[in-house]
Design goal:
- Helix content is 20%, strand content 28%.
- It has 151 residues and is an alpha+beta fold.
- It has 2 domains: 32 residues; 106 residues, Immunoglobulin-like (Sandwich).
- A 4-stranded antiparallel beta sheet has the order 3-2-5-6.
- The longest helix has 26 residues.
- The N and C termini lie far apart (82 Å).
- The N terminus is likely disordered.
């Protein structure tokens, strides 16, 4: 009898845990927090786009991060959980890192692009902050400056 009495609570606990796992899994679907689709462009003061890079946003007061790849025309689209899903509404600070891939090219084939000021590579020094609501903005222009001493 003791053995049978112990089996019942274990079964109830196992069923409860299985139900909790299934509920949590179903809760992670498309019914999550509302998202704001955000895209934009990174440009220098003269209008020249940033040529390749990564932009990352961190929600202020939260570990939530969004990121996007900056293409040759300076364009990007932000993603938080899956490609192109956007960001949760809130205030964010941003950091941008420029990618210059010339290691495998002969020196005479390097394209000379404007170099991004290294201050933009850190949330603490970039001075870039944005607020997104369900009403927008959905398209942003991020002004950046060249590295001291030019490119």
């Amino acid at each position: 009898m003791i053995h049978r009495a112990m089996a019942k609570p274990r079964t109830v606990v196992a069923l409860f845990l299985m139900a909790a796992v299934i509920s949590a899994h179903l809760g992670c679907g498309e019914s999550g927090p509302p998202m704001v689709k955000v895209s934009g462009v990174v440009r220098f003061a003269d209008g020249t786009p940033l040529d390749h890079g990564i932009i990352q946003l961190q929600q202020i007061g939260s570990p939530l991060m969004a990121k996007g790849e900056v293409d040759r025309q300076g364009r990007f689209s932000l993603s938080t959980r899956q490609a192109g899903d956007g960001v949760e509404p809130g205030k964010y600070r941003a950091a941008i890192v420029q990618l210059i891939l010339t290691d495998l090219l002969p020196l005479d084939q390097h394209q000379h692009v404007k170099r991004l000021d290294p201050k933009f590579a850190s949330f603490e020094t970039s001075e870039l902050e944005f607020e997104f609501t369900l009403d927008g903005p959905t398209e942003i222009v991020i002004p950046v400056t060249e590295a001291p001493g030019g490119g």
